[in-house]
Amino acid sequence: MNDKKHSFRLKIRVMIIERSEALRSAVKNFFAENNSIEVVGDFSNVSDARKMLSIPENHINVAVVEFSSFRPENEAFIRELAEQYSIPGIAIHDPSEKLPDTALAADFLKKPRTRQEFASFGAVLSTKIILASKTASAKKTDGSGILNTNSPKGKAEPVMPSESDMSGLDKRSRDGYVVALGASTGGTDALECIIKAFPKTMPPVLVVQHMPPVFTKLYSERLNRSCTVHVKEAQNGDRLSQGLCLIAAGGAHMELKRDGKGYYVKCGPGEKVSGHCPSVDVLFSSVAETAGRKAIGALMTGMGADGARGLLKMHRNGAYTIGQDKDTCIVYGMPMEAYKLGACSEQQPLQNIGKTLCKRLTDGWN
Predict the structure, then answer these.
(1) pTM for the whole thing?
(2) Sheet holding 178-183, edge to edge
(3) Splitting the chain (366 residues) into consecutive groups of 10 residues, what average pLDDT does each group show?
(4) In the chain, what is the straight-line distance between the N-terminal and C-terminal CA atoms, in Å?
(5) Residues recognised as catalytic
(6) Domains and CATH numbers, the chain
């Protein structure tokens, strides 16, 4: 008997719910020889998928779910996956259809329309499945296999600012200070954790979270229900005000501008910058130019480098800048690049960032 220890990696177990048998078969074939991902169930409807979920031994890591205005039951199913089973759902959709509320989806992907498009679709779906699985695992453990007890599901909860931390916010708002936030992969939960810490006296907040059109509106509505500040999807010409948080719309850059009446945002479509539209770099650069030292910014979890150069520009123009630390990032990409550039005044764990922003605004840094 060979007593040598053998190590192996368990595959990510994936369920597919899609009405097109051809697309389901193509996805299964794509992953047939994949070393990391295994399709363990494919269904044309959620009723059959629920039967598989009811058997604990079937253990699903990620679900790929079709979203369509013709299938409203799929919306309820992805909520069920997230809230009852803590299973991340990736929404695949036809961009020509009006989508239901998919704010709880872990990620989004357009369906391929041609055979040529499928190759890139499969590759991108692979990446999204792996990231969704990592995100779910990170919420359940602290990285050492120990359950994260921040909340019943391991979701990060903010360390709330004290009265003294918030005592200077009203004055900073009157003095024209602005808060700018940017995030990508893993950012929907990260931003919620931060914005939940903000009181109504908070200076205006501008946010770029990489998301497609439609989903940013649904996401802003979700945040508005859970946060004290007023959160809405940004529209071109929106005026900034105390206690207002604007989320950049998917497919539109958002820039801070100023005229004789005060701050407002310029929003509109454009070429991708740093690989994205909206781009964190576009927002941060405009904040650096328009608000200068009267700005504070934070860059959170995400792949790539979007926001790193913009944060550096803010830092050089006198703003206070924060990067999320490696230990609490789902993907330590964007804040790592900012840190490497010397763009961060400090790094902070996610749960402390909201409190830190309030305290720095109150205490000052200039």
Answers:
(1) 0.70
(2) 230-233, 244-247, 205-209, 178-183, 295-299, 320-324, 346-348
(3) 44 91 91 87 90 80 83 80 82 69 68 83 85 66 31 66 96 97 89 96 96 80 93 97 96 96 96 94 98 98 93 98 93 94 97 97 91
(4) 69
(5) 184, 210, 306
(6) 12-140 (3.40.50.2300), 163-363 (3.40.50.180)
